[in-house]
Design goal:
Helix content is about 45%, strand content about 15%. By secondary structure, the chain is of the alpha/beta class. The protein has a single domain (about 15-285), classed as NAD(P)-binding Rossmann-like Domain (Rossmann fold, 3-Layer(aba) Sandwich). NADP nicotinamide-adenine-dinucleotide phosphate (NAP) binds near residues 18, 19, 69 and 98.
């Protein structure tokens, strides 16, 4: 649960994190700050961002800029890039982390409910990527994109269909641009986390007493949810020059969750040792 990189691993780097005022974005940002980065956090709620700036600067001694931005509005993203350059100069990395999500049977969704998630997750990510990518290319600057998806980006998932469609799109964006923009020295990678407790995700995906009915840890071979520092270590590494040759990759950090739940016979872990003994005796009869 400790930071794994050298203390100056991100020194001199300026990194923008969308949705950086809360949850996983905040935790990843805090570690990047501790590693010497200048941090810019953006989201819709300026008051939340301002509180996080105070907290992170106090805890790390680093420098954080908060810029309000709705990632569905291209001109607000362009403004984040301009404000960041004004404060810190060249930008080195973007962590596309902002998201919206909730559980619902798909037939109960209005088209606006579907839109809201797709607009934040997919459109927000490609708006940010397009604006930053054009800027880096025009200025002949290298850059790193790191996109937060999740494992249902490739399996799909019922009850979170707008999110699954959007994360699949973000993964396609990641892999496509890893190839197309490599010639500009722009890398693109993704992380697919399994469950990491945050207020934002838990309140929307496990509302009411669902949290006691569906304990996420039980679905995970390692029998626990993720620790924020574990994700922060991976994100900082992928943002750093130590990962300079990693491009177009999606790294899963889920304790084995998605493979377990796709495996035909994984549920046999419910069989006890005594039952296995009995089954063994029956073999060959
Ligand atoms: C059905 C819903 C709904 C729900 C909203 N809507 N919540 N429909 N079930 N639970 C519908 C509304 O009725 C409306 O449609 C439309 O969606 C827009 O709703 P608003 O409330 O006006 O939207 P807004 O205030 O902008 O809020 C956006 C939000 C909200 C996405 C609905 O949850 C939000 O702000 N989320 C941001 C943070 C977040 O979601 N974090 C969790 C990420 S976790 P109508 O037709 O009525 O107008 C994550 C984990 C992935 O991604 C993997 C886990 C393992
Ligand atoms: P979170 O705290 O709710 O983070 C989501 C952030 O996105 C919030 O800070 C929110 O801030 C911001 N946001 C939402 N709509 C926005 C918009 N239109 N424009 C700009 N910012 C917006 O939840 P989290 O759990 O940390 O999730 C972070 C990322 O991890 C997401 O990409 C999520 O899909 C992914 N993830 C989480 C888990 C998990 O178990 N927690 C698992 C897999 C993947 P505002 O409301 O202020 O805008």
């Amino acid at each position: 649960m400790e930071g794994m990189l050298k203390s100056d691993a991100l020194k001199g780097k300026t990194i923008i994190i969308t949705g950086g005022g809360t949850g996983l974005g905040k935790s990843m940002g805090k570690y990047m700050l501790a590693l010497g980065a200048n941090l810019v956090i953006t989201s819709r709620k300026k008051e939340v961002l301002d509180k996080t700036v105070l907290e992170l600067e106090r805890e790390t001694g680093g420098s954080v800029l908060a810029v309000a931005c709705d990632v569905r509005k291209y001109e607000e993203i362009v403004n984040v890039i301009a404000e960041t350059e004004r404060r810190y100069g060249q930008i080195h990395g973007v962590l596309n982390n902002a998201a919206g999500n909730f559980i619902s049977p798909t037939e109960r969704l209005s088209y606006r409910a579907f839109d809201i998630v797709v607009d934040i997750v997919l459109k927000g990510t490609y708006y940010m990527t397009l604006a930053m990518g054009k800027h880096w290319i025009a200025n002949k600057q290298p850059g790193t994109f790191l996109n937060i998806v999740t494992t249902y980006a490739w399996t799909g998932s019922g009850y979170v269909v707008p999110s699954a469609c959007s994360k699949a799109g973000v993964l396609a964006l990641t892999r496509s641009l890893a190839v197309e923009w490599a010639k500009y020295n722009i890398r693109s990678n993704a992380i697919a986390p399994g469950p990491f407790p945050t207020e934002g995700a838990w309140s929307r995906l496990l509302p009411g007493d669902l949290v006691s009915k569906f304990n996420p840890a039980e679905r995970i071979p390692l029998k626990r949810v993720g620790e924020h520092q574990e994700l922060a270590n991976l994100a900082a590494y992928l943002m750093s020059d130590f990962s300079a040759y990693i491009n177009g990759e999606v790294i899963t950090i889920d304790g084995g969750e998605w493979l377990r739940n796709g495996g035909e016979f994984s549920h046999l872990e419910a069989i006890t040792d005594t039952q296995w003994d009995q089954l063994e005796k029956m073999r060959g009869k």
